[in-house]
Amino acid sequence: MECNYDRKNEMKAFDESKAGVKGLVDVGVSKIPLLFNHKQNIKLEEFPVSTNTGIKIPLIDFDGINKDACLRCKIIDEVKSSCEKWGFFQLINHGIEASILEEMIEGICRFHEQDLEVKKEFYTRDYYTKNVLYHSNYNLHEAPAACWRDTLTFITGVYRPPIPEELPATCRDIMINYTKEIMKLGKTVYELLSEALGLNPNYLNDIGCADGIFAPCHYYPACPEPHLAMGLTTHADTSFITILLQDQIGGLQVLHENQWIDVTPVPGALVVNVGDLLQLISNDKFISSYHRVVAKNEGPRISVACIFRTHHHPENSSKLYGPILELLSEKNPPLYRQITVKEIVKQLHPKKNEESSHQSGNQLQSALRKFKL
User: Chain-centre distance of CA 127, in angstroms?
Assistant: First the structure.
């Protein structure tokens, strides 16, 4: 690292500009600032990227799911297998119109590409009280290196219905409509997951798994030095499930059998993945897989991750979640203690020395380890 490099001041100037990574691209940077250099600031994971194009995450078709009992059973088996072996699957014929998906992508792009002075009005790091936040890198001040992305986050759900005036005019209507559709789809997915676990179809919905959405809407500008940067570092979601909308540029990778597998975009598809909370309540029946987004020299890439969990007080601490009793037995004792959503969300903000240990070499450690019995 350059001996005269003042990371603290560079980070402060970047944050106070409120222009985000897009602001760097707009002024024509040809090299990424050291603040974003992952190879110089942290040791990257040593897992290889798979070159086998035949290895792909499962693709599940929901067409006819409520019309044919035998077909529904087949789909439940596919969901079960995907969640046990991958923790990920792509979903087609999910019931959300392609025009809504396209407009959501376009709406998020409009927000990030609007006049900076308008965008700045939404710039905040107040995750404790705000339902709408724009900034670059939620952990900018803790992470060893920043990621090449900007984010507009929307928090909504049963306890926090959208307040239109809080949302940006550039994407207000589509954000409300899209999250409404995703919450409906989430309930359907939870029915199938409940049945896949041998439970009543309403079980996961009844315990509140679909009550809240934490939705970071990411904007990944084209990166001049993608080999040195990351779009999103290796992590597992704090959700029960996450339903992701991505455009066709790609960059998302999932860690499967100690190698990175590209989640190649499928037109009209949504990506569904198991989060830590579902792994916990399923007592490790379903797995919460690590994933990341690599930086690319094309863009902007747009994605919208609807992370199913509550976020704010009091709903994030009003319920305890532990391994589901109906799944437990003498041969399958509980692996975790009961926790609140708030407890697992705290794992999003590790101290700087902890961040390195989470992502050093191939010794990735799950946030769930803190809740093991």
Answer: 16
CB contact at 8 A, 322 and 337:
yes
**Per-residue confidence (pLDDT) for residue 42, from 0 to 100:** 62
End-to-end C-alpha distance for the chain, whole angstroms: 42
pLDDT of residue 366: 82
Closest C-alpha to 208, from 65, 96, 364, 314: 314
Burial of 108 (0-12, 13-18, 19+ CB in 10 A): buried
- Both tokens of 300, joined, read 């902007």
Q: Give me the residues of the chain with pLDDT under 70, please.
A: 1-4, 41-45, 348-364
For the whole prediction, is pTM greater than 0.70? yes
Helix (H) or strand (E) holding 124: none
Tokens representing 306 are 């609807």
Q: Which two tokens stand for residue 237?
A: 């979601």
Q: Over the stretch 3-20, which tens digit does the pLDDT of each residue have?
A: 567 889 999 999 999 999
- Which residues have a Cβ under 8 Å from the Cβ of 270 and sit 6 or more positions away? 90, 91, 94, 96, 101, 185, 243, 244, 245
Q: How many C-beta atoms surround the C-beta of residue 352 within 10 A?
A: 11
Strands 270-274 and 241-246: antiparallel
Residue with tokens 């809504």: 100
For residue 42, give the DSSP letter. Answer: S
User: Across the chain, where does the E strand assignment appear?
Assistant: 59-61, 88-92, 132-135, 150-157, 212-220, 230-235, 241-246, 252-256, 259-262, 270-274, 291-294, 301-308
- AA identity, residue 286: F
Provide the H-helix boundaries in 37-148: 38-41, 69-85, 98-113, 116-119
The predicted pLDDT at position 296 comes to 97
β-strand partners of 90: 59, 271
Amino acid sitting at position 72: R
Burial class of residue 152, CB neighbours in 10 A (0-12, 13-18, 19+): buried
